[in-house]
Design goal:
Elements: H1 3-10, H2 14-22, E1 30-31, E2 37-38, H3 41-55, H4 60-65, H5 70-74, H6 90-122
Antiparallel strand pairs: 1-2
């Protein structure tokens, strides 16, 4: 399928697909003889997984650190195993760092809110 069809199937836009490709979140797709991008169902699953990760709060940089393993998260040609996920994998490290950053931001905003509430109570 062409880029417009793949984007629609993944719930995004062709511009987003080109952006993900440029940023290294997706591998460069196959090209037709005329140079147009060609996508398959596995590519759409990969795109959906990238979008889900971004929607969860990971940054483009976070996802880029483990972009070569997104297929495992998407279930695309992924071997199934019963072992626990590796806590030192790039995906686990990225998630741990993002959680720490979010916790720090929540703490900062909570302190700001408390100061504003105190100032409003005094006024």
């Amino acid at each position: 399928m062409r880029i417009g069809d793949a984007a629609a199937a993944a719930g995004t836009t062709p511009r987003a697909l080109r952006f993900y490709e440029q940023r290294g979140l997706l591998p460069e797709p196959r090209r037709s003889p005329s140079g147009q991008r060609e996508y398959e169902a596995a590519d759409v699953a990969r795109i959906r997984t990238v979008r889900d990760l971004l929607r969860l709060g990971l940054t483009v940089e976070d996802v880029r650190t483990f972009a070569s393993r997104v297929d495992l998260l998407a279930g695309v040609d992924a071997p199934r195993c019963a072992s626990a996920p590796d806590a030192n994998s790039p995906a686990s490290v990225a998630v741990t760092h993002r959680l720490a950053a979010l916790d720090a931001e929540i703490a900062r905003l909570t302190r700001l809110r408390d100061r504003l509430a105190q100032a409003a109570a005094r006024a």
